[in-house]
């Protein structure tokens, strides 16, 4: 135990002198890294605009209020599209995520050496790329529209759903699976009666959770042209129609809060 | 014969069936039917230009092939500058966001903060969580002009909502006994927080912070689409010019960095917990 000897006797210290120095040096490095990052941001910034920012913000706010409520008639169709992008995307993602999850889970994978790394790679690569980037890519490939949005949301969600699902599969109790196997059940019967009932609640929870996130993401997919209410947002921003922008933002905020409420209710009912 | 049948039937009892997930029959049917009706309506209203999709398959194939020969060099300097800006934004925004979110988390924990402070902090968290990064970025670019400052502010703002909420929940579920023990020694408020609360939530704070760095990096990759700095602008240009090999290179770098961050965060979380 590190102590310091003083004339009045030893005093307890939490760390030795070397440990304390190492910690301070670490913090110093961290601080230096942060300051360097900040200086780079600062170099790339036009500070004149920043000093002017409060006035600009007030100006924009003044233009944006009150929202143009009559514009809501043009928004019903985009809202329906947004809902479809999120829901259909989630359904497609779940259908694709189930096999990936079973291949990635340690206790159900057919081959831990070859198949599992491939499944994990699918999970990581689909998860680490944002749905807006997937949408950009799909628009270049299959053209702008709702369909590109659905597929973008679907691809992005595969990794997320499959990761949570395979963690749920790895946590199932082996005794139930063994009990079903002991009755002479085939591989698929074990799956249907031993594994699926154990992960069904987790699956339903993941589905609703991801649907909630997807509502959020599908509202902005239109910014790159993948359909939904984001298209209207982009159009309004481009024409500097700030009253319309504020109305659309309010609609998006309402949709996000509503979907979060629905998802919380459903998950509370399941679990 | 029929008598024997019924006898066997009565001995065997009813055939076992899997219990349904939703017990109430009418609810089960209502959800099922409503879902089918919705699916029909949704599919009927989606317009898919199948000939366009079919044409696109070639380009899709070209893009997939580009992953086998990514081009890191011909736009090397753009990629490097973009990635550096993304990393710089991520680091700076994570530091500032975490520093701000700690006091807000303390304020948003009901067992520490008085009700007025609690309401204010919960309000900040709700606003930050409800607004998505990209929308905040659009507004901030309009206010502060193009460049990484808007991205930095966006990510800091998003970090506050995420980290404060989860940290506040952890503080609310901490053990009271340790806090009381520190209190009983006659500590001041700051000492109580430092010795009674902080050690209990530190592992979670570190884990969440590293997770948030990971998220911030991923988000910084798209902020460039609206002019808020980072690799997104380079990526967008690459897609617009159909330079799939450059785009593939950027995506590979993003995936690699995210994987590395996830690996590091796994190690760190295993060590602190």
Automatic annotation (TrEMBL), chain A:
Bilayer topology term: Multi-pass membrane protein
Superkingdom assignment: Bacteria
Annotated transmembrane regions: 21-41, 85-105, 112-129, 135-155, 241-262
Protein source organism: Jannaschia rubra
Pfam families noted in UniProt: BPD_transp_1 (PF00528)
InterPro entries tied to this protein: MetI-like (IPR000515), MetI-like_sf (IPR035906), PhnE/PtxC (IPR005769)
Domain ABC transmembrane type-1: 79-263
Gene3D superfamilies reported in the protein's UniProt record: MetI-like
UniProt-annotated location(s): Cell membrane
Alphabetic keyword roster: Cell membrane, Membrane, Transmembrane, Transmembrane helix, Transport
Protein name in the entry: Phosphate-import permease protein PhnE
An example molecular function term from Gene Ontology annotations: ABC-type phosphonate transporter activity
Family the UniProt entry places it in: Belongs to the binding-protein-dependent transport system permease family.
GO CC terms: plasma membrane
From TrEMBL, chain B:
Cellular compartments annotated: Cell membrane
Gene Ontology cellular component annotations, sorted alphabetically: plasma membrane
Keywords: Cell membrane, Membrane, Transmembrane, Transmembrane helix, Transport
Membrane topology of the entry: Multi-pass membrane protein
Secretion signal, residue range per the UniProt entry: none
Keyword check for Transmembrane: yes
GO molecular function per UniProt: ABC-type phosphonate transporter activity
SUPFAM superfamilies xref list: MetI-like (SSF161098)
Keyword Cell membrane: yes
Matching Pfam families: BPD_transp_1
Gene3D superfamilies: MetI-like (1.10.3720.10)
InterPro entries: MetI-like, MetI-like_sf, PhnE/PtxC
Record-linked NCBIfam families: PhnE (TIGR01097)
Family: Belongs to the binding-protein-dependent transport system permease family.
Record's protein name: Phosphate-import permease protein PhnE
């Amino acid at each position: 135990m590190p102590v310091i000897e003083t004339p009045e006797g030893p005093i307890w210290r939490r760390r030795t002198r070397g440990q304390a120095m190492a910690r301070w040096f670490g913090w110093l490095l961290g601080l230096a890294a942060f300051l360097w990052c900040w200086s780079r941001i600062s170099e790339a910034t036009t500070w004149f605009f920043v000093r002017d920012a409060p006035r600009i913000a007030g100006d924009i706010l003044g233009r944006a209020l009150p929202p143009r409520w009559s514009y809501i008639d043009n928004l019903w169709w985009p809202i329906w599209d947004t809902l479809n992008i999120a829901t259909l995307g989630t359904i497609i993602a779940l259908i694709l995520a189930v096999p990936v999850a079973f291949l990635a889970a340690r206790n159900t994978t057919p081959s831990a050496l070859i198949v599992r790394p491939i499944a994990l790679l699918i999970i990581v690569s689909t998860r680490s790329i944002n749905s807006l980037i997937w949408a950009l890519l799909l628009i270049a490939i299959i053209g702008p529209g709702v369909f590109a949005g659905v597929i973008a949301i679907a691809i992005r969600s595969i990794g997320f759903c499959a990761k949570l699902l395979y963690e749920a599969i790895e946590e199932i109790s082996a005794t139930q699976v063994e009990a079903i196997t002991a009755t002479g059940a085939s591989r698929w019967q074990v799956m249907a009666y031993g594994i699926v009932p154990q992960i069904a609640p987790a699956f339903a929870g993941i589905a609703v959770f991801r649907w909630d996130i997807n509502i959020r993401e599908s509202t902005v997919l239109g910014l790159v042209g993948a359909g939904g209410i984001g298209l209207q947002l982009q159009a309004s921003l481009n024409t500097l129609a700030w009253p319309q922008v504020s109305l659309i933002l309010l609609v998006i905020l309402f949709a996000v809060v509503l979907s979060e409420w629905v998802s919380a209710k459903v998950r509370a009912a399941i679990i | 014969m029929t008598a024997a049948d019924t006898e066997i039937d009565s001995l065997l009892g009813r055939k076992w069936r899997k219990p349904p997930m939703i017990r109430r029959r009418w609810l089960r049917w209502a959800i099922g039917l409503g879902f089918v009706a919705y699916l029909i309506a949704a599919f009927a209203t989606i317009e898919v230009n199948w000939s366009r999709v079919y044409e696109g398959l070639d380009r899709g194939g070209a893009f997939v092939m580009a992953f086998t020969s990514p081009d890191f060099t011909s736009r090397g300097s753009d990629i490097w500058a973009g990635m550096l800006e993304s990393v710089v934004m991520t680091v700076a925004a994570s530091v500032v966001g975490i520093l701000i979110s700690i006091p807000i988390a303390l304020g948003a924990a009901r067992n520490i903060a008085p009700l007025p402070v609690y309401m204010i902090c919960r309000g900040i968290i709700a606003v930050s969580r409800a607004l998505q990064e990209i929308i905040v970025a659009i507004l901030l670019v309009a206010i502060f002009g193009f460049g990484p400052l808007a991205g930095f502010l966006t990510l800091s703002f998003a970090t506050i909502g995420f980290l404060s909420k989860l940290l506040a929940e952890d503080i609310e579920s901490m053990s009271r006994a340790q806090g009381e023990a520190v209190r009983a020694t006659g500590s001041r408020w700051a000492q109580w927080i430092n010795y009674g609360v902080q050690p209990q939530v530190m592992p979670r704070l570190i884990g969440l912070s590293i997770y948030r760095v990971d998220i911030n990096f991923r988000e910084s990759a798209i902020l460039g689409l609206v002019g808020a700095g980072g690799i997104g602008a380079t990526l967008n240009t690459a897609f617009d010019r159909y330079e799939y090999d450059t785009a593939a290179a950027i995506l590979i770098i993003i995936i690699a960095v995210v994987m590395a961050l996830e690996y590091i965060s796994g190690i760190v979380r295993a060590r602190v917990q």
